[in-house]
Amino acid sequence: MNSKPVLSQKEVSVILAAGRQxxxxxxxxxxxxxxxxxxxxxxxxxxxGCAPIGAYLCMEKARTAxxxxxxxxxxxxxxxxxxxxxxxxxxxxxxxxxxPILVEGQVIGAVGVSGVKPDQDAxxxxxxxxxxx
Length: 133
Description:
The chain is of the alpha+beta class. Helix content is 41%, strand content 20%.
């Protein structure tokens, strides 16, 4: 039988706080989602001023990173390189801003961020993930 770590609400709170801090330092209004390894929502926070669609997109970015076991940017890069058929893949978004959470080489969840430029979304997501290290 295999075993692996899982995210508790304690870790989820740390992740959200780190993402919120990175966004506030940069004065970015974003939404931040944390999901488990199956892409199921554990927490969502929409900062003041973030457009409502940000809440939806951050969940999709997080789900994509968790299920795909890679940053959502990888899918965006594929589409931008001409693999437009990938746009029809179910349950995935090809937008940058989803980052998997790895512990001991295993994906245990992901963070998705939406609300600003793609690289800025990713910056917030990466800061949130790094808070667990």
